[in-house]
Amino acid sequence: QVRLVESGGGLVQAGGSLKLSCELSGRTGSSYAMGWFRQAQGQEREFVGYTSWLGRSTSYGDSVKGRFTIARDNAKNTVYLEMNSLKPEDTAVYLCAATAGMMTTNPRGYELWGQGTQVTVYS
Q1: CA count, 13 A, side-chain hemisphere, 51
Q2: What is residue 89's three-state secondary structure?
Q3: Are 91 and 43 in contact (CB under 8 A)?
């Protein structure tokens, strides 16, 4: 059984940076595309970005483009979300997700989800 575990969330001042990690554990023989989403309290889940299995293809949501970067290290079964120039509106629970299918901005396209990690940005 494949599990996703996020880490690296926390409290940061506006303008600061954080780096989140998402580790895949278990039977990881399949090639998974990975996505990052976020969900603020009372709001729908929002697409942050995704990366292909080899990391050659990435895409980002408009609200984070130019500030966030996704990278992956398949040797470590880990995907990273580096977040720079953080704003209070970036405050949310950040979740990583995996799909053996096509990359998509739709959260329904992902079969596996982590438990999420809280990111809080204060001004």
Answers
A1: 18
A2: helix
A3: no
